[in-house]
Write a structure and sequence with these properties.
With 81 residues, the chain is mostly beta strands. Helix content is 0%, strand content 53%.
Length: 81
């Protein structure tokens, strides 16, 4: 039994990259996901980077890749059904 589980998934990057898709373990196919920029220093939520839908196997294909720099953080928040 899990004692605590965050309602979102955090992604941190050590290198610059383009992110066209990512994986969310245990999220139902068809569930909508909002992706938000996070300030790495304060943890404050920033602007919406993308909206997408969870596909087969938990993969989320973004409408446009997100470009991240070393040290950037974003969170994926599955919407409640």
């Amino acid at each position: 039994m899990t004692l605590f589980e965050e309602p979102f998934y955090t992604f941190r990057f050590a290198d610059d990259r383009r992110v066209p898709r990512f994986h969310l373990e245990g999220v139902q196919v068809g569930r909508r996901v909002s992706v938000y920029q996070i300030d790495p220093g304060t943890g404050e939520q920033g602007r919406v980077l993308a909206e997408a839908v969870v596909g087969t196997g938990g993969w989320v294909d973004l409408p446009e890749p997100i470009t991240v720099r070393a040290g950037d953080v974003f969170v994926a928040v599955p919407q409640t059904p």
